[in-house]
Specification:
10% of the residues lie in helices and 59% in strands. The chain is mainly beta. It has a single domain, classed as Beta Barrel (Lipocalin). A hairpin with a 4-residue loop joins strand 10 and strand 11. It is elongated, with a radius of gyration of 23 Å. The protein starts with a helix and ends with a strand.
Amino acid sequence: MKNLIHTGYLIALIFTGIFSAGAQSAGTRPFRLDMQFGGRMIHRELQPLTENLDFLNYLNGGNGNSAYGVLRLGFSFTPNDRWTFDAGLGVFSDLFSSQLNVQATRNIKAISSSWGWGMMAGFEIYPQYLDEYNQFHIQKDVDMIGDLDKNYRQHTLYDLGISLRPFLRYTGEKLIFSFSTGAGLNVFKPFEVLIVQKKPLGNLRREISYETDFKPVLTSHSGAEFSYTFYRGEAVSLGILAKAEVLFGFRNLTYTRTILTWTADNAHCETIYPDKTIYSKADITGGVFVKF
């Protein structure tokens, strides 16, 4: 997945190379680098315990809410007054790239000298954690040793999404503000896990394998961005910016479960569809930028 993130960032740089000649001839400052720090909040309604494992009940410790500190490094390229291309990398406390955002923005029409509207298309990958999902079997399968693996069970769950959003933008001498809202498709990257159980003081063994499905769902995407330029020099401009982004949808994580009891000849396989419920993610960041 990290290779995919780096590949996406390389694609954004290729866009830069394609359009750079036209931008430089226009005599503008088409490049912007920014660094932002902020927080990410994820909420997912917890579901009652049933006969089937609901992986999303174990997001981020299993309390239904999580909060992360995120450092974001961004690069923006505006080849002309119609197009802008953005790419951003986000890192958590381990300082390894764990999030990628790529976005293309098209100005369509000016409403007045300061207001205009357009469309933006984006692609995003971001991670979160499934913690101790084996507790479902430890608590439910009381007649067995619930999980023979004594290590801490944690899986990085990646969410991939695309979106298309109309936006409204105000452009002043120093201040720029935009708001966008639209729809998209999101999907959790499929994964596989194995739970191995054993009868206490006996030889009976059971293997439970989970293979999640690739099922995109419709989601709502909204965002707002504010920037203020406080210095304009001969070569560079400096300023501050703030962003807010919200993802909302009704989501679940379907999977195929295969249970092998004692031998592979006793395999039982079925597809499980946990209930869909509210899932939301909100990012709020702020920082500084330089244009050149």
